[in-house]
Amino acid sequence: MSHDEGDGGNSAYGRKAFKRSGAHFADRITADGRDGWPVEAGRYRLVVSRACPWASRALVSRRLLGLEDALSLAVADPVQDDRSWRFTLDPGGRDPVLGIRYLSEAYDRRETDYPGGVSVPAIVEVAGGQLVTNDYQQITLDFATEWTALHRAGAPDLYPENRRDEIDAVMAEVFEEVNNGVYRAGFATGQQEYERACAGVFRRLELLAQRLAGQRYLVGDTITEADIRLFTTLVRFDAVYHGHFKCNRWKLTENRVLWAYARDLYQTPGFGDTVDFDHIKRHYYQVHTGINPTGIVPLGPDLSGWSTPHHREDLGGRPFGEGTPPGPARADEETAARSRT
Description:
The chain is mostly helical.
C-alpha cells in the first residue's frame, strides 16, 4: 500500500479509476544472492504500516518464522501525507536505524525521481539506506523459502513444495476478488464499476466459506501463505471495508464459517498480536479523503468478539504442522492490547 497511487496523492482516492500496479522494485533477497542481495542477518530493515494489509502479510510471516532478530522492523505512521509514509511515531520523527523521515528517501536513494507510488511493505538495506524491494507479492514467499537458514527452531513451512500449485491457485482467486476486490469497490467512480467489484467480493467470500466449512485451513491441514493473505483482508473487513469501502452485503460477523475461521487465526500466535485496529481505522478513514472528506473515524465496531471461542479445532488440523508456535511477541512489537482500546 499504496500500489495504486499516481498523480494527485491521497485526495485522488475515489476520484479516479482504480488500478493496482505491480511492484517496480522487484529485486529478490535470496539465499544465493543472485540479484546482489544475499540473505544476511541484520543487513536489512522491513518497513511496514500496521494499517496496510499487504504489509501485514510480512508482519505475520516474520513472526511465524521467527525472523525478528534477523530482520529489524520500522513502523510508519498510519496517517501518511502526500510525501509518503512517514516515521512520526519515532522520536524526532526519524526512523532510529535508517535516519530518515520519509520512506520516499530510501526510494530516492535507489532511483532518483522515481515516478511511482511509495509503498509498503518495503525492505531497505541498512548500510546504504536504499530500497531493495517493494515486491509485496514475493517478499513473504521468499521469507518462507529463501530465509530458511535464519528461521527459528520449529518454524512452520508456510509454502510447502508439494502444495504450491494449490496454494498459488487459491491465492490468485483471493487476490483478484477479495484482497484487491475490496479496493476496486471502495475506490469505484461509477455505480456499475462498484456493483461488479462488490458482487465479486461476496461471490468469492461465499465460495471460500464453502471450502472452509469442512476444513480448518485453506490448503491442507496446516497454516500456509494462503491463510495469511486471506486473514489480512478479513481482519479489516468489518472495521473498514464494510462501511468505508461499501462492501456491505453482510458483515464478517454475520458469516458463521468465515467469522470462526478469522477468529481462529486471530487467536493463533503470530496473527492477532500483529494487528492494530487503531492504525487500521485511522489510516483508511483519515487518509482516503476522496471518499471520506470529513476524516471522521467511527467508534465501532465492537472488537471484543475477536477473543471469543471459535471451535474450529473440532475440524482437526495442526496449525504449525510439525513445528511449534512462535514465542510471545516482543514487548516493543506487541500490538494486540493497544488495538482493543
